[in-house]
């Protein structure tokens, strides 16, 4: 890499870093505001609150029925992760290993849900779900969350599977492995890191998925992020500290999985696909 | 393999005679105490070298020896942590790479994938602000020199590896650089193409007469291309010399290793100073004369100078060993044998030898090297 | 040539089994593994989408195009398009303009992980939490205004919430990391030797950027722009919570949601949702169309 010297480039470099720092400071400020307020007794018109307390957490837990909400959230999230993992990985395997007529079209079908705004398909899908009586139910929330999750798993896993040399599978076949043992002894161990990465990313994304869940969630099928939205939306009704206490609970839930995910994936993967494997020549 | 013959076959090809190539006339490069450290690791540890005008220098060494670091420092892509670089007596090590005006050929070619071949070759000229008409003429001449004139409007991705490499060379020489730097330019090509390109690179060098520094880990390449070879190891220069000097008289175990002296045996000079005591016997070696009795030495021999025959050694005519493996390579058998202490030696034999058989291993004394130190 | 003829002749007497012929075209047991995923997406995405199109064309009253006529004749509705674009386009552009120079700096860093991890935070926290945090942070008594007053840039606090700027800030905070990380992956994908080659040929840092990097990055940057724009264009919770959902930040998502779930007019809701998709598609196509003028191959080098 070339590092330029000279005054102009030094100034430019400083400016770039200053902007980055400013961004991060504001970001941390936003998060710190939420945490501080959740621990404040009273915080009006000063730099820091008058005093600190943890009672808002107990209040929020009761007011927003967080036990129930957290339970629903985890059930939804794990079910979505499991289902989209099962469906997505088998599909990705086929797409990575076979070339067939219409493959480009199939890939496009999997790409579309990630390119179209969630509300564009969310509103008709929610309408349909309400018509068949799934609106407001637990399964409705699971189903609507599968729409972006399955394509996401497929697109993350395709390059990952492609980079596994098909000759490894051929070799296993030659040595007498049947489809079952091929899968459990060869593919599963090889795919595990990629699967873990893809599934953890789905998990993190589903916890934070607001728009779609919001459309079909009923009173008993609200996930944490939807509860948080309603609380903020009706913010006049509750103490702001109580709302922020719930926000912190939400933050901790998300960050727990994020930190877990970051043990297995590179942060860039959360937005971009896994680094494209070099096609073999 | 003799360096002189190879050179003779590789020298003037059609390309060199056809193009009225611009005689750039190279610069004289001096490296004075070049140092480059990465944290505590010293990739270059005081490199001194003078490259004469028009000279073709090969930097040879195993990977990690500092040869590529040296090249990148000369190009300005890596700042020095110590020492100086002088071109025609002027210090240039403070200049940015774009201010040095050297031509560089990269291992991965590094062609600009979004530009046509002509644009690629013309890039340096555009940067120098060369007038369009002159630039076009020089691009033509350069493409002619590398025999790619008809491919000018293609994109790099449409060319084969060898063609891409020639474009990379054309791009580097079209700016008439005082110094051409080549970083393992042939390592991505297959064996046959590598031989062809080797000849072509030498021919182009002779056509334009620029000073060239060529980094490689392939001693064949270095021997056949260079006027002088610089062998590097662990960030320092081990030996500088003509291909003949290096091939015949390496002055260090590492250099010998690189020049095909595959066998290394550790031993000691005998009490009377006339022989060398080695595992499996003793040898009378003229090179040992003058060494103190009891000096630990390393003996290096090329496989072709280490002849094995049936039987056991008796007093000074060779070493006793056991055949480990043997294979026919046309005209002679080559194999490996173990000395009593387990040291592996590589030999030549005129007939096949059964595995496990005891053999007498007799090196050609005139072609056996002795290094004073254990060397490992 | 003759080989092929011979082969064809040899095959004609005994036609291979259907299974073999299908396998030759790439259809076998493994290919069928596509089906679960394909069926799921067809049932949960394509079918609802088509249902939405039909639904939008069967209004509660009036001709088949009544919903669309209503949308484009009611300023309260059709103005949401410009309101959304007026938010999404500048934010996306700004995000990209910030992302490129920062990505170029970060690419030189040896330890990028802490920075990239910090930047992933707002993406994983999601829009709702960022909106809630910004409500306090940017509020008249929040740390942002206090700091600006403390260092003397302001005399009275700026009004930054419940208006355009609040939503703008939230889109910046959630959108920038996304644009940045994508850009970073494109920038680091360029073979460093290409830049070195340009430098040895006499190109200064600025010319290396304009002549080498930028043309190589255009395909990646246009994809980044599209993906970042898709996110910004779908802005919903922060426009409600941080903006003026009845005024300047009444974005198209709000209109679609309120039609479908507040007025219970799912037909109109679907129509607005489809208009939303169409507008976004137009912008994406425009950007990708512009990209067509540039080089579109691999930027990772010419090796191989």
Report on this model:
Chain A is built from 11 helices and no strands. Chain A is an all-alpha fold. Chain A has 2 domains: 1-53, no CATH class; 64-270, MetI-like (MetI-like fold, Orthogonal Bundle), CATH 1.10.3720. In chain A, helix 1 (7-38) packs across helix 11 (240-262) and helix 7 (166-174) packs antiparallel against helix 8 (179-208). The radius of gyration of chain A is 23 Å and the shape is globular. The model of chain A is unreliable at 274-281 (pLDDT under 50). Chain B is of the alpha+beta class and 376 residues long. Chain B folds into 2 domains: 2-253, Rossmann fold, CATH 3.40.50; 261-371, Nucleic acid-binding proteins (OB fold (Dihydrolipoamide Acetyltransferase, E2P)), CATH 2.40.50.140. Chain B contains 11 helices and 20 strands. A 6-stranded mixed beta sheet of chain B has the order 6-7-8-3-9-10, sandwiched between helices. In chain B, a hairpin with a 4-residue loop joins strand 16 (319-328) and strand 17 (333-338). Chain B is elongated, with a radius of gyration of 24 Å. Chain C has one domain: MetI-like fold, CATH 1.10.3720. Chain C has 13 helices and no strands. In chain C, helix 5 packs antiparallel against helix 10 and helix 9 runs antiparallel to helix 10 (205-233). The model of chain C is unreliable at 1-11 (pLDDT under 50). At the A-C interface, helix 1, helix 3, helix 4, helix 5 and helix 6 of A face helix 3, helix 5, helix 6, helix 7 and helix 8 of C.
Topology:
The complex is a heterotrimer of chains A (281), B (376) and C (304).
Chain A lengths: L6 H32 L16 H9 L2 H32 L5 H13 L2 H14 L6 H25 L3 H9 L4 H30 L2 H6 L7 H10 L6 H23 L19
Helix pairs in contact in A: 1-11, 2-11, 3-6, 3-8, 4-6, 6-8, 7-8, 8-11, 10-11
Chain B lengths: L2 H8 L3 H5 L10 E10 L2 E11 L4 E5 L6 H9 L6 E6 L2 E2 L5 H4 L2 E3 L11 H12 L3 H14 L15 H13 L5 E5 L7 H18 L2 E6 L2 H7 L2 E6 L2 E6 L1 H6 L4 H6 L4 E7 L5 E4 L2 E4 L11 E6 L4 E5 L8 E10 L4 E6 L5 E6 L8 E6 L5 E4 L4
Parallel strand pairs in B: 3-8, 3-9, 6-7, 7-8
Antiparallel strand pairs in B: 1-2, 1-4, 4-5, 9-10, 11-12, 11-14, 12-13, 14-20, 15-19, 16-17, 16-19, 17-18
Helix pairs in contact in B: 1-9, 5-6, 5-7, 6-7, 7-8
Chain C lengths: L1 H10 L6 H7 L9 H23 L9 H8 L1 H32 L6 H25 L5 H8 L13 H25 L3 H9 L4 H29 L3 H5 L10 H11 L3 H26 L13
Helix pairs in contact in C: 3-13, 4-5, 5-8, 5-10, 6-8, 8-10, 9-10, 10-13, 12-13
Family (chain A): Belongs to the binding-protein-dependent transport system permease family.
Subcellular location (chain A): Cell inner membrane; Cell membrane
Pfam family, one (chain A): BPD_transp_1
């Amino acid at each position: 890499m070339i590092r330029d010297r000279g005054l102009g480039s030094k100034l430019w470099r400083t400016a770039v870093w200053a902007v980055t720092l400013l961004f991060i400071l504001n970001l941390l400020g936003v998060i710190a505001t939420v945490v501080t307020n959740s621990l404040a007794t009273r915080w009006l018109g000063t730099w820091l609150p008058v005093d600190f307390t943890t009672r808002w957490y107990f209040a929020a837990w009761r007011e927003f029925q967080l036990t129930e909400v957290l339970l629903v959230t985890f059930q939804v999230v794990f079910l979505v992760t499991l289902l989209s993992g099962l469906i997505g990985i088998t599909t990705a395997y086929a797409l990575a290993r076979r070339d067939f007529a219409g493959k480009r079209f199939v890939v496009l079908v999997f790409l579309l849900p990630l390119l179209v705004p969630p509300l564009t398909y969310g509103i008709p899908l929610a309408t349909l779900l309400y018509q068949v009586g799934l609106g407001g139910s637990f399964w409705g929330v699971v189903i609507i969350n599968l729409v972006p999750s399955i394509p996401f798993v497929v697109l993350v896993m395709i390059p990952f599977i492609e980079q596994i040399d098909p000759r490894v599978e051929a070799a296993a076949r030659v040595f007498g492995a049947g489809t079952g043992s091929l899968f459990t002894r060869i593919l599963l161990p090889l795919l595990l890191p990629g699967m873990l990465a893809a599934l953890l990313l789905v998990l993190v994304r589903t916890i934070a998925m607001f728009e779609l869940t919001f459309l079909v969630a009923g009173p008993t099928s609200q996930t944490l992020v939807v509860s948080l939205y309603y609380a903020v939306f009706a913010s006049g009704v509750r103490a702001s500290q109580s709302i922020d206490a719930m926000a912190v609970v939400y933050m901790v839930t998300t960050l727990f999985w994020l930190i877990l995910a970051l043990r297995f994936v590179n942060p860039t993967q959360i937005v971009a696909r896994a680094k494209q494997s070099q096609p073999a020549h | 393999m003799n360096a002189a013959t190879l050179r003779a076959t590789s020298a003037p090809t059609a390309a060199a005679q056809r193009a009225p190539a611009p005689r750039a006339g190279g610069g004289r490069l001096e490296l004075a105490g070049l140092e480059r450290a990465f944290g505590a690791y010293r990739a270059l540890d005081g490199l001194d070298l003078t490259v004469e005008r028009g000279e073709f220098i090969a930097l040879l060494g195993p990977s990690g020896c500092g040869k590529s670091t040296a090249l990148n420092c000369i190009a300005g892509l890596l700042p020095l942590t110590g020492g100086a670089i002088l071109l025609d007596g002027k210090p240039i090590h403070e200049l940015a790479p774009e201010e040095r005006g050297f031509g560089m050929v990269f291992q991965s070619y590094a062609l600009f994938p979004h530009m046509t071949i002509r644009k690629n070759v013309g890039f340096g000229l555009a940067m120098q602000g060369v007038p369009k008409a002159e630039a076009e003429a020089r691009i033509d001449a350069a493409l002619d020199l590398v025999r790619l004139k008809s491919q000018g409007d293609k994109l790099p991705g449409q060319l084969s590896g060898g063609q891409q490499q020639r474009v990379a060379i054309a791009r580097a020489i079209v700016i008439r650089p005082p110094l051409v730097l080549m970083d393992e330019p042939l390592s991505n090509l297959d064996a046959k193409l590598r031989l062809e390109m080797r000849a072509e690179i030498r021919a182009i060098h002779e056509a334009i007469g620029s000073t060239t520094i060529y980094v490689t880990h392939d001693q064949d390449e270095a021997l056949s291309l260079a006027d002088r070879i610089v062998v590097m190891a662990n960030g320092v220069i081990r030996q500088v010399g003509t291909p003949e000097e290096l091939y015949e008289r390496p002055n260090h175990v590492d250099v010998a290793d690189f020049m095909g002296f595959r066998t290394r045996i550790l031993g000691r000079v005998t009490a009377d100073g006339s022989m060398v005591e080695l595992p499996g016997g003793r040898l009378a070696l003229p090179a040992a004369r003058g060494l103190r009795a009891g000096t630990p030495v390393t003996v290096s021999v090329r496989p072709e100078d280490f002849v094995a025959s049936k039987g056991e050694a008796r007093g000074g005519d060779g070493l006793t060993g056991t055949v480990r493996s043997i294979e026919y390579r046309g005209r002679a058998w080559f194999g490996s044998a173990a000395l009593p202490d387990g040291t592996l030696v590589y030999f030549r034999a005129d007939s096949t030898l059964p595995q496990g058989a005891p053999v007498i291993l007799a090196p050609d004394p005139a072609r056996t090297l002795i290094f004073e130190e254990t060397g490992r | 040539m003759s080989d092929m003829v011979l082969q064809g002749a040899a095959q004609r007497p005994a036609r291979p089994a259907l299974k073999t012929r299908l396998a030759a075209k790439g259809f076998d047991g493994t290919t069928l593994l596509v089906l679960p995923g394909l069926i799921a997406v067809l049932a949960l995405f394509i079918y609802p989408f088509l249902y939405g199109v039909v639904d939008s064309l069967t209004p509660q009253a009036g001709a088949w195009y009544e919903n669309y006529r209503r949308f484009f004749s009611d300023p309260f509705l059709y103005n949401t398009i410009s309101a959304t674009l007026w938010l999404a386009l500048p934010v996306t552009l700004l995000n990209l303009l910030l992302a490129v120079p920062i990505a170029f700096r970060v690419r030189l860093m040896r330890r990028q992980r802490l920075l990239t991890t910090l930047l992933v935070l707002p993406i994983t926290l999601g829009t709702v939490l960022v909106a809630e945090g910004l409500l306090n942070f940017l509020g008249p008594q929040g740390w942002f205004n206090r700091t600006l007053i403390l260092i003397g840039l302001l005399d009275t606090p700026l009004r930054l919430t419940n208006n355009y700027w609040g939503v703008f800030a939230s889109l910046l905070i959630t959108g920038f990391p996304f644009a940045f990380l994508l850009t970073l992956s494109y920038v680091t994908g360029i073979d460093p030797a290409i830049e070195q080659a340009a430098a040895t040929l006499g190109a200064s840092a600025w010319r290396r950027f304009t002549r080498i990097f930028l043309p190589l990055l255009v395909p990646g940057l246009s994809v980044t722009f599209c993906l970042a724009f898709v996110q910004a264009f779908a802005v919903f919770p922060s426009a409600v919570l941080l903006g003026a959902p009845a005024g300047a930040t009444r974005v198209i998502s709000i209109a679609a949601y309120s039609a479908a779930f507040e007025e219970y007019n799912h037909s109109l809701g679907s129509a607005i949702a489809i208009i939303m998709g169409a507008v976004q598609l137009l912008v994406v196509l425009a950007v990708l169309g512009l990209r067509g003028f540039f080089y579109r191959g691999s930027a990772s080098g010419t090796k191989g």
